[in-house]
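INTERNAL AUDIT FORM
Audit reference: QA-55
Scope: verify that the stored structure record matches its stored sequence.
Auditor: D.O.
Record contents follow.
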Amino acid sequence: MSTSGPTGWRALVVEDEPASRSALATLLELRGFVVTAVASLAEARVLIEEKVPLDVAFTDLGLPDGDGLALIGPLIGLPSGCAVVVSTGELRLERAVEAMRLGASDYLTKPLDMAALQLALGRIERQLDDRDERLRLGRELMRHGSYQGLVGRSAAMQAVFEIIERAAPSDLPVLVRGESGTGKELVARAVHQVSRRRRGPFVAVNCGAIPAQLAESELFGHERGAFTGAVTAKAGAFERAHGGTLFLDEVTEMPLDLQVVLLRVLEVGRLTKVGGTKEQTVDVRIVAATNRDPQQAVKSGKLRPDLYFRLNVIPVGLPALRERGDDVLMLAEHFREAQSEAQGVAPVPFSRGAREAMLAHSWEGNVRELKNAVARAVVMHRGAAIEPADLDLPDGGVVSESDKMAAGGDGVWIPSDTTLDTAERMLVEATLARLRWNRAATALALGIAPKTLYNKVRAWGLSEDA
């Protein structure tokens, strides 16, 4: 029943009336869609469970084995990011509102009007065109090391970009783990920006910075007179983030009694303000973050296990900067240009020594520490280039020109009768030791490509533990 057309987009038709199902499938095929047509909720669910790639689904709401509304969430949650158009013979506006609240892209009434259907198809095709172009540009930027405010070409960061790209079309919760300063909020913003919620609000809350007695009000809001000082009603973070994304930073620092309330709101999609009696519906996507090991936080009683399982649907592990190799230099260049622009001055290059120093430094504060060091160097440097001293790094991060041939502070003594191959090996070993086996820094110090260094280390059987 399916034929491939010029678009190649994949469509699902869920309709129990044979004539309507056949007519809609034929129209879609004529417009270039690859079509799968089924007659029931159960058949559609089988396709969803098998994660069949779909770009758009047309579903009737009045199916013989249930309500088509039940398909909207699972369909838009598919990895491919499926758009949903619903149709029904009912004339109640509430059904349309509910379908759109659940994430449907469009709503049609039956019997289907051909003009209205053509308009809906046109809107969907423009939506899919925009999505495909966004994905293409996103992948192109990823290859060049820049993605939604995140910078990096290392394998670890490319893996993070890929998770964000795959997670964004769904509304599933995301839990970001990483040391302080690795960029967890940037990941949350990236998830928001490439999701269907990008036109909605992005609200960030630092759970560790809110006083315990005010935490419930900050998240869920309060009514006037709810407590001393509540002279007016206040919208909480959930209400402000309605239709968008709520970022809960350092979620393991949230009081345990508040975690119980949060879990219920996440499960039912409704909340009651402090001092209020009326429930209100909230539609938010949750991205949570922690600099702790969340499983250890569960074991120590800091995080409820049921909340952890509710949040940890799509885990994202952010690498420490010291694990990202040459990304350090790429980020440094990025921060240098941004700070220079902010200062209204021309960018000044990093000296070779400064580059070695940045590669050798352990960056306990991660990207935040690097950004601050570069900003300071741009403002405080005096010469024609940024030198190690301008970065003001702790003693193990600075590599002076006089140390380039030193290992642990001593010179490399090479006997006059040493073969060239042995001398080269001694120099490589000494430099590796001096730079604490940071291979990117060692390659830069020796003036060779990282791949060349890797091949030599492997050929000589060198090891950090040797």
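Auditor finding: record pair retrieved intact. The chain has 19 helices and 18 strands.
Action required: none
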